[in-house]
């Protein structure tokens, strides 16, 4: 009898112990499962996206940052209110210290069908294209395919003054070249080069002596890079940029020329009277204005440039070096010391009704991208950049 009693007592004890173990496991999963889900969801998005965290993601993962979260939310509200009342029509991306403060559209991407601008909306970035071309150049320079001292004549022997104009002259807008009027006519690469050559039988200044911002400079850089890419890799410059810049940086809403019309989130550029604006043939904007992006993609490009994904640290420093005294311009970027809350690097673009601003602080902590699809926003981009950087620097 005693043995039977002992048996049943042991069985009850074992079952109780098993039940407690299972219950503890369930409680642990309920308490921690959401955290693991958040981490996993960030991993699914991809490394490029995970570089910047949303407030919700960080709140889920670490409640110790409550003061910082509150501060960023206040800045988000202030920036959002400012843009909402400024007349800005486009998409804004603001990132501060790794947190996405704002990623929002304002106004309409298409007035005819009342389609609103969204975070995914794509815009022509105009002359910001030059910063992409400069990265392609630095990559090929790192591979020994070209140098700053390479003369234009090495690739186009008959180009006027080609022996005197170096790649660095072109990249820094000190070549003396002028830009011929851009038209609707479609041109091949070499026809574009010939057009530039015909317009520059006489230079506006001796190479390396005077700064003059001209699309012709980066069109020539792009034409030469296209020659190198085709002879070395058997692909056009656009194909090279897609693989070595867009894909490497994780850009998913970027492309070239007319192909934006076939994308899922295109925008229409409007003039001051809300009329759709025409643009020159993109074949004449090679390397200087033929790229479109979403605002988030442009931010991702900035981050990939800054974190070593696209070029080496030495090349990064070279891109943002003032190579000619008295000129606050580097390779596709302006160098802004003082103001805007912090020292910044910036680029801007205007093409038809599209107006774009792209800037980040030299300490790589604050990023502001403003892509607009209305000429009415042309006078808004610069003051908006300054205002937003000052808000971010406000504490």
From TrEMBL:
TM ranges: none
InterPro entries according to UniProt: AmpC-like, Beta-lactam-related, Beta-lactam/transpept-like
Entry's Gene Ontology cellular component terms: membrane
Main location: membrane
Domain (Beta-lactamase-related): residue spans on this chain: 79-377
Protein's UniProt name: Beta-lactamase-related domain-containing protein
Any one Pfam family match given in the protein's UniProt record, by short name: Beta-lactamase
Keyword tags: Membrane
Location in the cell: Membrane
């Amino acid at each position: 009898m005693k043995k039977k009693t002992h048996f049943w007592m042991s069985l009850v004890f074992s079952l109780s112990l098993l039940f407690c173990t299972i219950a503890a496991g369930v409680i642990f999963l309920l308490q921690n499962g959401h955290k693991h889900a958040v981490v996993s969801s960030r991993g699914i998005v991809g490394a490029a996206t995970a570089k910047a965290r949303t407030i919700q993601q960080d709140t889920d993962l670490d409640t110790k940052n409550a003061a910082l979260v509150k501060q960023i939310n206040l800045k988000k509200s202030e920036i959002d209110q400012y843009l909402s009342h400024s007349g800005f029509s486009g998409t804004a991306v603001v990132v501060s210290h790794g947190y996405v403060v704002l990623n929002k559209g304002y106004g309409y991407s298409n007035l005819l069908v009342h389609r609103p601008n969204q975070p995914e909306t794509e815009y022509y970035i105009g002359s910001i294209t030059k910063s992409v071309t400069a990265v392609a150049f630095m990559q090929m320079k790192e591979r020994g395919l070209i140098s700053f001292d390479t003369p234009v004549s090495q690739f186009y022997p008959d180009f006027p003054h080609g022996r005197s104009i170096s790649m660095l002259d072109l990249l820094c807008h000190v070549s003396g070249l002028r830009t011929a009027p851009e038209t609707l006519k479609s041109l091949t690469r070499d026809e574009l080069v010939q057009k530039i050559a015909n317009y520059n039988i006489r230079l506006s200044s001796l190479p390396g002596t005077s700064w003059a911002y001209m699309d012709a400079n980066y069109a020539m850089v792009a034409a030469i890079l296209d020659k190198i890419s085709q002879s070395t890799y058997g692909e056009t410059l656009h194909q090279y940029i897609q693989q070595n810049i867009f894909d490497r940086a994780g850009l998913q809403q970027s492309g070239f020329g007319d192909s934006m019309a076939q994308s899922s989130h295109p925008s229409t550029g409007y003039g001051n009277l809300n009329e759709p604006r025409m643009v020159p043939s993109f074949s004449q904007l090679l390397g200087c204005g033929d790229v479109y992006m979403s605002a988030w993609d442009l931010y991702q490009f900035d981050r990939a440039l800054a974190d070593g994904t696209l070029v080496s640290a030495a090349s990064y420093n070279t891109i943002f070096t003032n190579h000619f005294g008295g000129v606050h311009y580097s390779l596709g970027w302006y160098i802004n010391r003082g103001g805007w809350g912090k020292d910044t690097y910036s680029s801007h673009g205007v093409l038809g009704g599209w107006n774009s601003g792209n800037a980040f602080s030299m300490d790589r902590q604050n990023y502001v991208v403003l892509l607009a699809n209305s000429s009415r926003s042309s006078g808004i981009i610069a003051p908006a950049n300054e205002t937003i950087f000052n808000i971010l620097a406000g504490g």
